[in-house]
User: Fold this.
Amino acid sequence: MSMRWTLPLLVALAACSAPEEPKAPAFTEVDPCSLLQSGDAGQMNGSPTRTERTCDYPFDSLTVRLTLLSANYADESQKLLSDGGYGGVVDDRPLTRKCVDSSGEVTCDAVVEAKEGQLIGLKVLQRSHDLNVVGQVTQGLAAKAVERLPK
Assistant:
């Protein structure tokens, strides 16, 4: 074989055998316990526990239940809006949250659209009377979770 064909042939072979870029896991394969970490809302008291597409996080002053949902954002958002919630934005993603105070414990439910049909649901429970403060914590946790989703 002549030298003038050897180099192009080697280049073509190298291109064919180049390793594939690893693909990010599909949304349905993401571990919900990988989306929040100690320090996101204080230190964790123990390890997060996973059940299917849900993870319960035991932070110092609050607990968080994070759920990965394959659903329509408008439908899930409407459930919160119809009961007194309001909309916002987290990392250019739509978010709806609703917080209620019950005997000194604030519970905030939130849903954020990661991608079309891919939602992160949050339920944050904290001893407090300040709905706004717990709501801001909820929004911050939603931002962290969206940021840590595989691209």
